[in-house]
Amino acid sequence: MVSWQAFMAQEQQQSYFQKLQQKLSEERASGVVVYPPEHDIFKAFELTPIEQVKIVILGQDPYHQPNQAHGLAFSVPKGVKPPPSLKNIYKAIINDYPSAQIPMHGDLQAWAEQGVLLLNTSLTVRESVAGSHAKLGWQQFTQNALRYLAQYQACAYLLWGKHAQNVAEPIVANSIHRKSSLVLNSVHPSPLSAHRGFLTCGHFRAANKWLQEQGKSPIRWLNTETPESEQYTFL
Fold first, then answer.
1. What is the DSSP letter of 83?
2. How far is CA 194 from CA 1, 34, 55, 161, in A?
3. Which residues does the annotation mark as catalytic?
4. How many Cα atoms occupy the beta-carbon half-sphere of 130 within 13 Å?
């Protein structure tokens, strides 16, 4: 049976994954602060079962400052100020859906529950050290997860920045569902690059159009009516 649980069980038998877990345990035992908390590391898989995945959004690292990372790419828990990249994601959604309202929080769990796999290529990071776990083995794990998904069903892939594109594009191109999947590329939503086309990339409306063509329900990216007290005003 195809499931994320079956995939996890398969990977846990692999030596690279066992070494990865050992390294993480050693870091924590030595007092290194690692994000996200252990119970959130695999949250993307827990909230979005494989048979429910409609869209893949691929990030790079979890946020590496306190209280930010909670296992979903680009997302932060409620009560934490949305980081700049997420603010730009919200702006791009407003460009596609002008009647939508930007919420006060940056928690994207509602997207995950609708079928958006919010996956980072590294699932952990040391506090204040971006990219610190990129070579621990996580990329092999997440690439294997994407291969597993790509062989199972067609999806829409929203790939922002060269890193996401280099990781995912070859996997989709070599999958049995390559012709029926949708791959959308843009620059990263970081403030350093978002102005070069991300804010007007049209990915959110395009992905929903594709879903409807497949007979699937579109993603409700943002509410169309949000109390003013819960809205951001940075646009």
1. P
2. 40, 28, 21, 10
3. 61
4. 4
Q: Which two tokens stand for residue 166?
A: 């280099």
Phi, psi (rounded to 5 degrees) for 25: -65, -40
Residues near 220 by beta carbon (within 8 Å), at least 6 away in sequence: 110, 114
Give pLDDT tens digits for 142-189: 999 999 999 999 999 999 999 999 999 999 999 999 999 999 999 999
**Distance in angstroms (rounded) separating the CA atoms of residues 46 and 38:** 13
Cα(198)–Cα(211) distance, rounded to whole angstroms?
Answer: 21
Residue-wise pLDDT for 25-67, tens only, equals 999 999 999 999 999 999 999 999 999 999 999 999 999 999 9
Walk me through the domains of the chain, giving residue ranges and CATH numbers: 4-224 (3.40.470.10)
